[in-house]
């Protein structure tokens, strides 16, 4: 087969993507994806093409990105351990700081032991792969994150989806499943594109009745929900527990990496069966240092969490009053649902002209017709920043015909 012939099946797909990009982004002012923003220190602002713009779609929920203490900890880790890790964790890649971070993660999240992965994505793929294989059944919420779906698909287990945040539907799915094998139910604690919270008590009750393990992904819950940012169990006042808790070090914690917490024997097991842990280089020293310092700050400064919780509730009330659809959001993640992909793109582009970045999320990341701007209120946003953003959201929506 000659080279052009070998590309024959891919060319229409590549052309379709090119066409879609041209349809949405016909000039640089309409670029809303893969944009190289420069952070403006420890502020919620970014620099782009000489302009200072207010970022309203970042992950830094507790306002620590660029914090001088976190930056100093990352630099100190580089000074002591260098820029890379000379291997995977099982061989030459483990440094004392990895173990210190794992102790801190376990302590912060109220479990005996923890492991850190090189990303949250790797953590999900590794954990699910260690838990399930052919002959097992995995039950996924319809809106579970892609890393959960991918991890589940790789296991060779039977996969079943249940309706979003619907324990009754999960109950029916569990009742209908083949008996035998491990039954694993996986949910996001906070859904990253909707900002709603998994109904943990009801899910726990259903799982217990059917002998299923319950795993939660705390990526957008750590530092966001619970009185001190400890996630979904704290949010439900520790009345129920998840069997397996995983999360990331890349959202509220401004680093990279993923984590899992549990008993020491369980962590010893995961260490030997999670393939991304075994076969991918260890988390780099700077990331470990930054994550460790951020968790210590979060522990000492819970007011960062309560501030973002209070301000996101205020933000949500105001934008709802103004006529926006924020779906079932009840956290710092607030979607502004605008309908078509084109609407979302037009709206984001108009917002940028008003000095605010609100990034569009379009299909297939969300169902067609439910395109949105994914807004996140963080501890870095002052009340004045949030009020400035609200004015921009409303005026750009009027200008683009989304609000009258
Ligand atoms: C719910 C959820 N889980 C896992 C991940 C992956 O985390 P990371 O970006 O650290 O790989 C994300 C990232 O967006 C996420 O939203």
UniProtKB/TrEMBL annotation:
It catalyses: 6-carboxyhexanoyl-[ACP] + L-alanine + H(+) = (8S)-8-amino-7-oxononanoate + holo-[ACP] + CO2. Pfam families: Aminotran_1_2 (PF00155). InterPro entries: Aminotransferase_I/II_large, AON_synthase_class-II, PyrdxlP-dep_Trfase, PyrdxlP-dep_Trfase_major, PyrdxlP-dep_Trfase_small. The keyword Metal-binding does not apply. CDD domains: KBL_like. Its cofactor is pyridoxal 5'-phosphate. It is an enzyme of class 2 (transferase). Residues 63-393 form the Aminotransferase class I/classII large domain. Coiled coil: none annotated. Keywords: Transferase. Its EC number is 2.3.1.47. GO terms for molecular function: 8-amino-7-oxononanoate synthase activity; pyridoxal phosphate binding. Signal peptide: none annotated. It comes from the Bacteria. This is 8-amino-7-oxononanoate synthase. It comes from Kibdelosporangium phytohabitans.
């Amino acid at each position: 087969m000659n080279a052009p012939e070998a590309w024959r099946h891919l060319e229409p797909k590549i052309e379709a993507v090119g066409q879609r990009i041209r349809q949405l982004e016909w000039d640089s002012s309409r670029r809303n994806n893969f944009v190289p923003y420069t952070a403006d220190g420890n502020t919620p602002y970014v620099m782009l093409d000489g302009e200072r713009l207010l970022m309203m779609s970042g992950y830094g929920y507790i306002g620590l990105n660029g914090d001088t203490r976190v930056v100093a900890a990352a630099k100190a880790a580089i000074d002591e351990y260098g820029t890379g890790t000379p291997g995977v964790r099982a061989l030459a890649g483990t440094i004392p700081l990895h173990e210190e971070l794992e102790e801190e993660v376990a302590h912060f999240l109220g479990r005996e032991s923890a492991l850190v992965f090189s990303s949250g994505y790797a953590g999900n793929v590794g954990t699910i792969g260690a838990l399930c294989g052919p002959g097992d059944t995995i039950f996924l919420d319809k809106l579970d994150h892609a890393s959960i779906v991918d991890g589940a698909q790789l296991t060779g287990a039977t996969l079943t989806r249940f309706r979003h945040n619907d324990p009754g539907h999960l109950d029916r799915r569990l009742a209908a499943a083949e008996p035998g094998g491990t039954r694993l139910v996986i949910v996001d604690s906070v859904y990253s594109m909707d900002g709603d919270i998994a109904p943990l008590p009801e899910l726990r009750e259903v799982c217990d009745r059917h002998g299923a393990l319950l795993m939660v992904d705390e990526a957008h819950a750590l530092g966001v929900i619970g009185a001190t940012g400890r996630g979904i169990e704290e949010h439900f006042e520790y009345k129920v527990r998840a069997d397996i808790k995983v999360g990331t070090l890349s959202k509220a914690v401004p680093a990279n990496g993923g984590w899992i917490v549990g008993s020491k024997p369980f962590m010893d097991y995961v260490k030997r069966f999670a393939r991304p842990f075994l076969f991918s280089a260890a988390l780099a020293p700077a990331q470990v240092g930054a994550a460790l310092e951020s968790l210590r700050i979060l522990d000492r400064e819970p007011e960062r969490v309560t501030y973002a919780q209070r301000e996101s509730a205020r933000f949500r009330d105001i934008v709802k009053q103004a006529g926006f659809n924020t779906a079932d959001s009840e956290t710092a993640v607030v979607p502004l649902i605008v309908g078509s992909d084109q609407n979302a793109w037009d709206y984001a582009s108009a917002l940028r002209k008003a000095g605010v970045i609100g990034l569009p999320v379009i299909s297939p990341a969300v169902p067609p017709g439910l395109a949105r701007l994914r807004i996140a209120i963080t501890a870095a946003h002052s009340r004045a920043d949030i009020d400035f953003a609200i004015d921009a959201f409303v005026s750009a929506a009027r200008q683009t015909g989304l609000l009258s």
